[in-house]
Every structure is written in structure tokens, then in C-alpha cells.
Amino acid sequence: xxxxxxxxxxxxxxxxxxxxxRKDLFSKIQKLPISFFDSRSHGDIMSYYTNDxxxxxxxxxxxxxxxxxxxxxxxxxxxxxxxxxxxxxxITLVMTVIMLVSLNTISNRSQKYFVAQQRAIGAxxxxxxxxxxxxxxxxxxxxxxxxxxxxxxxxxxxxDSSTKAQSFSGxxxxxxxxxxxxxxxxxxxxxxxxVIDGNLDIGALSAYLILTTNxxxxxxxxxxxxxxxxxxxxxxxxxFSVMELPEEEDTGKTSLSCINNSLVWKRPLQxxxxxxxxFKGNICFENxxxxxxxxxxxxxxxxxxxxxxxxxxxxxxxxxxxxxxANLINRFYNIENGRITYDGIDIRDIKETDLRKSLxxxxxxxxLFTGTILENIRYGRLDATDDEVIAAAKFARADTIANKENAxxxxxxxxxxxxxxxxxxxxxxxx
Length: 431
What we know:
Elements: H1 2-30, H2 34-38, H3 42-84, H4 86-133, H5 135-140, H6 144-170, H7 172-196, H8 202-243, E1 255-259, E2 262-268, E3 274-278, E4 283-293, E5 296-306, H9 322-329, E6 337-342, E7 345-346, H10 352-357, E8 371-372, H11 373-378, H12 386-395, E9 413-414, H13 423-430
Antiparallel strand pairs: 1-2, 2-3, 4-5, 4-6, 6-7, 8-9
Helix pairs in contact: 1-3, 3-4, 3-8, 4-6, 4-7, 4-8, 6-8, 7-8
């Protein structure tokens, strides 16, 4: 009953902690700047949720329980040894200190390899995800052999780091066995001398030697879990390195409001007063400069404007900064010099949510969420009715394949291998 209760308590604590870590990690990632996602592959980011949290889970729900149980056994055995012979206990404690120093040295050396292992599996997962999602492109350009070579290199890095990590942690057990054997031998010799001198009873010596053997067993059990603990700590280190990253700062105070069915910018003034600026959509670049990386400037001293109702095309070669300009208007990145104004307001003074809510942007790389066409179109405004969504699709001429013979067009499920055209089947699936 006690073991069952202990297991239930540990599982609740462990999985409760993991639930909070996943929740906090997901919440943190939503607040990170776009540069975080641009510098990492999707597979590497997903590795935080899979490989790293899985390593931490194994550490919490299996290894930690066994380590705690064996620590209790060690403490209990030390108390029994003290009552039998305080003098022999000194030998045991000295050898224990030597053992712990050896374990700490090996653990510190192997820890860096476990961290490298978690990074390598993240890179491997990222590359695998990229190759799978781009499988058609790889086949079209006959780059299969090249992709396999790159995968082998990443796989080799992961294999090497894992081998080194397990190799170092695997040295712990032989060292513990060796120290335990020396401890038993010294204890037996000194105990025999104490018995001959009449300072120890032969029965007490026998009992102490039995306890010495039992005292070694918990350390063996703990050493078997060192690898899982170190791997879990490596996963936790990667997770908390993300949790400590600076979040995207939003210093804007100007908000977008609807007054008398008209949109206005509400800019706070001193005190409780606010200035109402009509929303028109006038965008102006004033000597704007920007670079993703230092010494590699993409935009330099650009000044331009877009008046309400104008249609402007940005034409240029790949990498000339067309998409960058759209990213800067949305404040996905902050500019280095100059300023961008929106209806005369510096966009850095506008709240990010209100700024992006006022803009419509079709990204270069589209993404479809798992769900119906109706739900994907509604993603821009979650409170839109079905009629409003259909009207928007018609206005954008995105309903050209919808006709009377394909009445369930908007209920088609995207992002899944199975597509449901029957409304009743779709509702059953959603439930």
C-alpha cells in the first residue's frame, strides 16, 4: 500500500510538473520574436516538446523515484552501522566521499556530451522534418542522394555525442564496484584487528560486513540511473534556455478603437485624456535602415509612402528586401534607424495586436491549419459568421471550385490524409 501511494504521489507531481512545463514553454514561444523562429528549424523547435520533455519525463517518473528510495536506504544503513561500530563507520564514510567525488567528476564530464546529444537530436529532427515536408521538391530536382549524405552527417554527430555521453556515464558502475570492494576489504581487515584487540564483537563485525555489502547496493542502483538523470538535466537545460530568452517587447500605447462605426487610433495624452486620430491607412517610411545580421544591411535609408487607396508593387530580385518591408510594417522586426509612421503615428507607439489587426497580409509561405476551409478562412477573425466567411472567399475569388455539385466545399477538412465531404461525417469526426 505504501509503495502504491508513493507511486501515485510521484506520478501526480511529475506529470503535473511536466504539464506546467509544456504550458509555460508553449506560452513563452508565443511571446518570442520572429527572429527566434527564423534562426531555428521547425523540427528543432518541436524537439523541445518531444525529445527534451521526454528525457525530463523519464528522469522525473522513473529515475528520481529510484534515487530517492536508495538515498533513504543509504541513510538507514548508516544509522545501523553507527550503532554497530562508529570506528568502522569512519572508513565507510571516507570511501563514500571518494566515491561521490569520482561520481561528480565523471558526471560533469559526461554532462556536456548529454547536452550535445540533445542538441544533435534537435538538429536531426529539424532536418528530417524539412526533408519530409519538401519531399516532392527533393524528388523533382533529384537531390535524394545529397539529402541522404547530409542526413548521415547529422546522424553521425548524434551517434558520436550519444556514444560519448553513455561511455562516460557507463564508467560509473565499474568505479563504484571497485571502491566498494576496497571498502569491504579495508573494513574486514580493520574489523578483524578490532576483534583481536577486544574492541569489537565478532558478531557485530559479521553484521557490519553484511551491512557494508547492502550499503553498496543502493549506490549501484543510483549509478544505473545516472545516465537518465543527466539526459533529463540536459533536456531541462535546453528547455529553460528558451524560457530565459527575452520576449518580444511591446512598448506601444496607441490602440485601435471603433467609435460610431468608424475606426480611430486612440493615442493617450498626459493625464486621462486621449487623442482620436482617424484611421486611414497612410504608411510612410522615413530614412529606414534594417539588417537581419550585422554588416549585412538589407535596407538602407529608404524613404517612401503609400497613401490610402493606392496600389503599389515592389519589384526586385530575391533578397532585395520586398518581404522585409512587409515584415517591418507589421513590426515582426524593429528597425535600426529612421521610423515608419501609420497615419502619422510611429508604429513603435502602436500596440502590436492593434497594429497587426489593422493590416491584412498574405504571407509568402502559406500555412493551412488542420480543420475545414471555413475554419482556416475564419482564422483572420474568429467571431466571423459562416455567411461573412463565404462572402470574404467570394470577394477574394477563392471560391472558384465551389459550385452546386460541390456544396460541401467549405466543410472540406485540410491538413489531414482523410477529407470529409459529408457534413454529418465531418461533425462526427470533430466530436
